[in-house]
Automatic annotation (TrEMBL):
Function: Catalyzes the formation of 6,7-dimethyl-8-ribityllumazine by condensation of 5-amino-6-(D-ribitylamino)uracil with 3,4-dihydroxy-2-butanone 4-phosphate. This is the penultimate step in the biosynthesis of riboflavin.
InterPro entries: LS (IPR034964), LS/RS (IPR002180), LS/RS_sf (IPR036467)
Enzyme class per UniProt: transferase
Domain of life according to the entry: Bacteria
Protein name per UniProt: 6,7-dimethyl-8-ribityllumazine synthase
UniProt KW keywords: Riboflavin biosynthesis, Transferase
Any Pfam family the entry gives: DMRL_synthase
GO cellular component, one term: cytosol
Name of the gene this protein is made from: ribH
SUPFAM superfamilies documented for this protein: Lumazine synthase
EC code: 2.5.1.78
Length: 156
């Protein structure tokens, strides 16, 4: 597990902010937990979460862009697990590039909680389920809200 050196997510004061959470339906056990933890993080920070579900990870960027136009921050959640074809690489590259572009084009923070894993076990271990080592839904939400608060402070 390569989480060495990562900071522990601590809730920020994001009272009055809204966060759009878009999550893929693939690997529901994992994505449902990512969503639950993202919603909890938003509430811990005082923000209002709005959750939207999409078919798969490739559909996340277009909905994330729509959410970025209406909310203070966006969180993208999903689980892409490597198979035996290059499809994994195409999906991961497309989603990551799309989310980065949205954040820059819309000036809205996008927390990337789309898990890109070599196995189902790795995805479960990052999902925030009991016994897992990481909590990517929570972490991505706190990061997006922290960035939204910082952007507000930097905006004249």
């Amino acid at each position: 597990m390569s989480g060495v050196g990562r900071p522990e997510p601590a809730p920020v004061e994001a009272d009055g902010l809204t966060v759009g959470i878009v999550a893929a339906r693939w690997h529901e056990k994992i994505t449902d937990q990512l969503v639950a933890r993202a919603v909890q993080a938003a509430k811990d920070c005082g923000a209002t979460p709005v959750v939207v579900r999409v078919a798969g990870s490739l559909e996340i960027p277009v909905i994330a862009q729509a959410l970025a136009r209406r909310h203070d921050a966006v969180v993208a959640l999903g689980a892409v697990i490597r198979g035996k074809t290059a499809h994994f690489d195409y999906v991961c590259d497309s989603v990551t590039a799309g989310l980065t572009r949205i954040a820059l084009d819309e000036s809205t923070p996008v927390g990337n909680g789309v898990l890109t894993c070599d196995s189902l076990h790795q995805a479960i271990d990052r999902s925030g389920l009991p016994g897992s080592h990481e909590d990517k839904g929570y972490e991505a939400t706190v990061a997006a809200l922290e960035t939204a608060v910082l952007l507000r402070a930097l905006t004249p």
